[in-house]
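Please produce the structure of this protein holding TXE.
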Amino acid sequence: MATTPETRLFINGQFRPSSTNETFDLPSAKTGELLAKVYEASAQDVDDAVAAAKAAFPAWAALSPYDRGRYLVRLADLIQESTKELANLEAESMGRPVSTYFDATAGSKYFRYFSEAAYPQGSSSLNTPGFVNITLKQPVGVVAAIIPWNAPLVFFCKKVAPALAAGNAVVLKSSEKAPLTSLYVANLALKAGFPPGVLNVLSGHGPLSGAALASHMDVRVLSFTGSNRTGRLISKMATDSNMKKLVFELGGKSPAIIFDDADIEAAVRETQFSIQLISGQTCMANSRIYVHRSIAESFLERFKVAFTSARLGDPTDPAINHGPQADKIQHATVLRYIEMGKESGTLVTDEQSASGLYINPTIFTNVPEDAQIMKDEIFGPIVIINPFDTEEEAIAKANDTEHGLYAAVYTKNLDRAMRVASRLEAGTVGVNCTSPTKGDDMPFGGQKGSGLQRESYLHSMETFMETKSVLIKVAGL
Ligand code: TXE
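Below is the modeled complex.
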C-alpha cells in the first residue's frame, strides 16, 4: 500500500493503541499477505469510548442543526476528496474493484444531505380540554453502530451521519475484516474539527468489543448491519442489558421475477450486475431469478454470456470488475455452497477454475425450492435461475423465504407489476429495475428476518431520536 494505514483506535478525539496493546492480523484479500496489524478494542476501550461519547453529548446536542451541519459538510468534502485513497484501501483489504467504487460519492452524500436535512418536528394537540399538548423530538444520547465489511464506507456514513445530525454522540465498531476504512474516516473527522468524543471509532472482533457495545448500559440505540445470526445475539444482549432500541439490516435472498413481456436485454444486464457486484457480497443482490418458462432458455443463455464475461483480477486495476471474496472464510463458504448446489440442481456454468480467493460467476438451474442454496444467503457470485409458469406460482416461490430485503419484477404490464409488487414480501421492490437500490430518500430495510426499522435519507434521523409527550395544563382554556 502507498501509505501506512492508521491502525489505532479513535477515542475522545485521539488515536491510541488498545488498553491491552493487543492487535489482530489483517490479511490482504488481494495478495493474502499481511496488510496491517490492527489494534483490538477491549471491553475497557468500549467503556472509554462510550464514556467519551456520553461526556461529549450535551454540548453537541445543544448546538443548532445548522452548527452541527457545518462539521458534517466539511467531512463530506474530505470524504469526496479522498475517493482514490479510499478506493485503493478497500481494494487492497477486502478485494473491492476500484472500477465499481461509487462508495465515496454515496458516502459523502449522506453527510452532505444530513448537514442540511430538515430536523424532525414534533406535533401539537388541542384535543384534551384544558390542555395544550406537544411532542418534543430529542436525541437519545449515545448511539452505537456495528457495521460489516462488504461496503464499509457506505455503512459508516449511512449510520453515523444521521445519528450525529440528530444531535447524538456515536461509537462505531467496524468489522474485523475491514477496519481500515473507518479509521481513515475517523482521521478525516479529526481534520474536520469535530469536538472530541462526538465520534469514536473502534476496531475489533464481534464477540469482544461488539458484544460489549451491545450490552452497554449507556448505549441507547444500536444500529447494526450484518448477519442474521449476529442480529439474534445482539438482540438478546440488548434486551438483557438496557432494552436499547435496535435498527437492524440483516441479509437477504432477494428474488427477481422476469415475465415474458419484459425487456429481456435490460433484465439480463441489470440482474447479472446485481449479483456480480462486489463478487456477490451485497445484502440485496438478486440471488434467485424466476423466469417465465416461455423465455427461460433464452434468458439463461444471455445471462450466462453476460455473467461469465466478468473480468476477474487485481481489484486495484481499473480494467477489472470482479475481485476476490473478502477473506478465506467467505471464500470457503461460497465453495461449500457450490458443492451443495451441484447435488441439488443443475450447474449451468463450468467447474471452478479461479485460484486465490476468487470465485468464477456460477449459475444453477432447476434447483428445488427447499434446497439449502435456495434458502441461505451465500454472499458470493452464485445465482439460481428457475423457470415458472404462472404469476401466482412466481409470487409464492419468491416469498418462500425467511428473508425479505429486496425483490424485483420485470414486466411491461403495469397492472401485473403493481399486483406483484404489492404481494412481494420485501422492504423494497424494484419494478423494471433491481438492486443496487435507487432512491436514497426511500426507506430501506427488511421485512421478516431481514431487519428491524428502516434507514434512508428521510427515515434515519427519526430512528435516532426519542419522542416525548409534554402535557401542558392551561388555566381557563
Ligand atoms: O457477519 P457478522 P460476517 C452476512 C453474509 C455473510 C455472513 C457472515 O451472508 O456471509 O453474514 O459475515 C460484528 N456481538 N452478511 O461474519 O459476524 C462483527 O464484528 C456484536 C450480510 O462478517 O454478522 C461485524 O462488525 N457484534 C450483511 C458485524 O457484526 C458482533 C453484511 C458483522 O459481522 C458479534 C455482512 C457479536 N457477538 C454479512 N459477532 C448485510 N446485511 O449486508 C459479530 N459481530
